[in-house]
Amino acid sequence: GENVEQHPSTLSVQEGDSAVIKCTYSDSASNYFPWYKQELGKRPQLIIDIRSNVGEKKDQRIAVTLNKTAKHFSLHITETQPEDSAVYFCAASKNNQGGKLIFGQGTELSVKP
Amino acid sequence: DTAVSQTPKYLVTQMGNDKSIKCEQNLGHDTMYWYKQDSKKFLKIMFSYNNKELIINETVPNRFSPKSPDKAHLNLHINSLELGDSAVYFCASSQDVRALHFGNGTRLTVT
User: Fold this and answer.
1) Is the pLDDT of residue B98 over 90?
2) Integer angstrom CA distances of residue B28 from A103, B25, B32
3) Are B101 and B5 in contact (CB under 8 A)?
4) How far off is chain B from A53, nearest CA to CA, in Å?
5) Who among B94, B97, B99 is closest to A95 (CB)?
6) Which of B4, B54, B97 to mutate to test the interface with A (most CBs of A within 10 A)?
7) Residues of A in contact with B33 (CB under 8 A)
8) Does residue B97 register a pLDDT over 70?
9) Whether the predicted pLDDT of B66 surpasses 90
10) A100 to chain B: which residues are within 8 Å by CB?
11) What is the pLDDT of residues B4-52, one digit of tens each?
12) I need a surface site. Which of A8, A101, B37, B62 has the fewest CB within 10 A?
């Protein structure tokens, strides 16, 4: 089955710096790659997603890139702010799995003011 | 106007007891899920229902029994609770292969 590896497990940056989180997946049939942000004690919330027919997607300070050949995708956060501090999860799924998302292990991002 | 609501928010119980968690979504989605988040924050799917039909069962002990009376509700019943069942349980819903909408979670503590 699908396996999603996420790195790093923890990331500390200064406010204003960029943060990059990387994920690799094993199943070449996966075609949907969302990213979730989970603040302490709260539920995971979708922040951006990308499908396999697109190489890059941006939404303000957040961007995601996808390399299907290498089977990896990345989250880029620019001009980080303290409120970006949270655990970020990547995930992957494919059409015939009933929407089942396989999550990476999570990255705890800390943005220091 | 909460999209996915689950109750209770906290559940503290003793080993061997039976407990239930309820979930409801008002998004009109066809698919609902239960995910377990352990102490290391890892999110793992347990079950998925599509229009009241079980479509995913991820090798979960049969002490866990999901029930979906209609496509807007997916409840989770757990028999003979064990210490290792302590975790946060998230209900979620989605439409086709799209983003999951999570509930606020139920923190289960087994003592």
Assistant:
1) no
2) 24, 7, 10
3) no
4) 14
5) B97
6) B97
7) 99-100
8) no
9) yes
10) 33, 45, 48, 56
11) 999 999 999 999 999 999 999 999 998 999 999 999 899 999 999 988 8
12) B62
Six token digits for residue B35: 């995910």
Q: How many Cβ atoms from other residues are within 10 Å of residue A73's Cβ?
A: 26
Q: Which amino acid is at B85?
A: D
Report the amino acid identity of residue B29.
H
- Do the Cβ atoms of B26 and B72 come closer than 8 Å? yes
Q: Do A87 and B48 touch (CB under 8 A)?
A: no
Cβ contact B31–A98 (<8 Å) = yes
Q: Residue written as tokens 């503590």?
A: B109
Place of tokens 């990255």: A107
Mean pLDDT to the nearest integer, B41-67? 89
A98/B50 touch (CB, cutoff 8 Å), yes or no: yes
Q: Give the tens place of pLDDT for each residue, A50-101.
A: 988 888 999 999 999 999 999 999 999 999 999 999 999 999 988 766 668 8
- B43 CA: distance to closest CA in chain A (Å): 6
